[in-house]
Amino acid sequence: MMKKGRRNLVPIVLSITLLVMMFAAMSFQAIAQDGATATPTPSDDSGNEGNTESRDYYADPASSTGDAEWTIEERSFTSNYPNGFQFSARVSSSKGDIENATVMWSHAPRNQGRRAATYDESTGLFTSVYDNSEGTPPWVAVNYRWILTDTAGNTYRSEWFMGEEYYDDPSQWERFESEDIIVFVEEGLPEDTGQQTLDAMAAQRETYRQAWGDVLSYRPRAILFSNRASFDEWRVGQGNPNVIGQTNAAWGGIVQVVSGGGVIDLAWGTVLHEVGHLYQDEFVPAGLPVATWQNEGNATLFELYQMYDYEQRVRDLAASGQLPALLIGSGPSQNSQGPDGRNRLGYDMGYVFYKWFVEVYGLDAHRQLIEALGPSLGFNAALEQVTGLTTQEIERRWRTWLGASPDAPTPIPIPTMRFPPTVTPFIFPTASN
Predict the structure, then answer these.
(1) Based on the domain organization, do 195 and 340 belong to the same domain?
(2) What values do phi and psi take at 69, rounded to 5?
């Protein structure tokens, strides 16, 4: 049975351990992941409009052109997981036959998919079918509307019909909800997985709010798989065994399969990181390109669990005189190999830079940086606007804080691990410090 609500099954010892980790990890700590794949066709938003349209996105009422009266009856939604979903309805116009019928659906605000509907004379129903050709995970929301045209040229767009879900077998999943997130936990994961995730999101709620200026306009979803076989079931044509998760704003959520880090890593590290990417998409869609240290370091800032001490790694590079330039030149990509022979250089340097920035200027400065970013103002220019310093001086002060030489070395090409930028890279087996 699917269960809603919170469960109080967190072991006392584990809770104490988490508190110790959170204080030790003060103030913004992390593990890093990323990912996205194109599913529904995005709407025509452009630029860096943030979440200005999201709050009332589904309040858009029915509308029409012409003088026809429209009827939609016997409306239904069917989940055929993992093979997609379909919509059916009996539709009519008072002025002519239905010439075109389309269903538009949305899993999250500002993102849409659509398919044309076909007419079945034997049933009198129009049916629109999505066959999961784009690889959609289970438990995403499905909100939809019908778009109709009759032979007289009249058109009709219905209101949004809300509340459907692309569901898997409910007996294999448990559902947990809070004001911050909706969590789906597959059978086989530890029983406290859902509660841990709710607690982690609650712990970061006000940090997200202050850093971004508001919380997300929707409750994100975390779909947490217990095994590789079921995780791969929905991933049509995506057979990379190294992928342990994907995040897509079009889904309004994140999808992960548990890995070596266990539940604490998953809830207090990965989920918080990936939700950070959803904030990026909503508040600064044009300002933090995927697969850059700016993007991954920013998401890492919001995590409360680390696989190892990211800051110490960067400080060690600084102490050895091997710290590469960050703002001067392009800086490291997300999975660049560092001078120490370890990967994830962009994650770690990016995280430590944002940590320094927030410690010195505060979370409000992070919000100001996000608000300044956009197609017409790049990252360094936005930093200069917020801090009142030149890029060179910002780099110098950050390096000095780390104990490095204040003068950044001349940028040289850094080898980059070639992983697809649209999926979550696998967790590297780096020992904890």
Answers:
(1) yes
(2) -100, 130
